[in-house]
Amino acid sequence: MSLLLPLLALVLGLAALVWSADRFVDGAAASARLLGVPPLLVGMVVVGFGTSAPELTVSALSAWDGSPAIALGNVWGSNICNIGLILGLTAAIAPLAVRRDAFRFDLPVLFGSTALSWLLVRDGGVSRANAWILLGVFAAWLAGSVLLAMRGGVRAESAASASAPGAGLSGRMAAFWTVAGLVFLVASSRALVWGAVELAQALGVSDLVIGLTVVAIGTSLPELASSVAAARKGADDLAVGNVIGSNLFNTLAVVGLAGAIRAMPDADPDIAARDIPTAFALTAALILFGLPIWRRGSRDGRLPRAAGWLFLAAYAAYTTWLVLAETGRL
Question: Angle, nearest 10°, between helix axes 68-81 and 276-295?
Answer without folding.
Answer: 30
